[in-house]
Specification:
single chain, 295 residues, globular, mainly alpha, MetI-like fold
């Protein structure tokens, strides 16, 4: 067998494997969307969930998912930004840096149910937060930090050293060079990482079962006082998300139309995650062109 034939065979195998992966993805997405979209309507998106009768919606679960996502990013992004800047710009190549990177890799490989159990024992019980949005957001911070930190670090490392040298040659301090030159140039990649991590957090369920709870109490969407127990902005209230809602209606077996609700909720969840990924690509490309003046 000559080298050309071997190359063609290897190329064909690679194409087949790639086609298999794409085919599986298209099949999963197509099945979920085809079975779920017929159950999605304006009433489904804007009405409250029902436990013992048919016709419920996902209004509260959809809002809880978005609220929890925003709160998680508010907590995790400053930590990830500081960690990424340290690892990229300040950290020496020694055992401490290696230990930090190993810790990040280990944290990223932990099952989400383990993180949820940790959050339940520490935040829900030990700190007496109860099942709440805040406890869920803190637990998801541990889940989100590795990906977000790595994204910030890689975005900073992708910035050319010539830009750093230019800033230092103008007499700028190291910190001013980072904040004034390097960080703005890395914004497209950082935003892409934020949106991708947001999609991952949005679809999380196992960690939230133990921390944010499995109930969606009726809240007053006109009450803007976050200290009120009926306010939709109260971070100490339980909050059932879309992913948890899918698991709940299928395990409890008390909702007559559980199959249609879970199918519709799955379709909404998939669409939102696809929008996160699509917006990450579009926003990253737009920011790159904007900041590099390319057309």
């Amino acid at each position: 067998m000559n080298s050309k034939t071997t190359n063609n065979i290897a190329t064909g195998i690679i194409y087949v494997l790639v086609a298999a992966v794409v085919g599986i993805l298209i099949f999963l997405l197509g099945y979920i969307l085809i079975t779920g979209l017929p159950h999605v309507s304006w009433h489904f998106l804007t009405s409250a969930a029902q436990s013992f009768r048919a016709g419920g919606g996902i209004r509260d679960q959809l809002f809880n998912s978005l609220y929890l996502l925003v709160l998680t990013l508010i907590i995790s992004f400053p930590i990830a930004l500081g960690s990424g800047i340290y690892l990229s710009e300040y950290a020496p190549n020694n055992w401490l840096t290696g230990l930090i990177r190993t810790a990040i890799e280990v944290l990223s490989s932990l099952p989400s149910v383990v993180i949820g159990l940790f959050g339940y024992l520490l935040f829900v019980i030990q700190f007496r937060m109860g099942f709440s949005i805040l406890a869920g957001a803190i637990a998801l911070t541990f889940f989100n930090l590795p990906l977000l930190t790595r994204s910030v670090e890689e975005s900073l490392e992708d910035v050319s050293d010539l830009q750093r040298e230019a800033g230092l040659s103008l007499g700028l301090s190291h910190w001013k060079t980072i904040t004034g030159i390097v960080l703005p140039a890395a914004v497209p990649g950082i935003l892409t990482g934020i949106i991708l991590s947001a999609g991952r957090v949005f679809g999380e369920a196992a960690a939230l079962i133990y921390t944010a709870g499995q109930s969606a109490p009726i809240v007053n969407y006109s009450n803007w006082n976050p200290m009120s127990t009926t306010s939709f902005l109260n971070p100490m209230r339980p909050a059932e998300t879309l992913a948890v809602h899918i698991w709940k209606v299928n395990t409890e077996g008390v909702t007559p139309d559980a199959l249609s609700i879970s199918s519709g909720t799955s379709a909404v969840l998939i669409i939102v995650i696809l929008l996160f990924n699509l917006s990450a690509r579009l926003l990253g490309n737009w920011m790159y062109k904007k900041m590099t003046a390319t057309k």
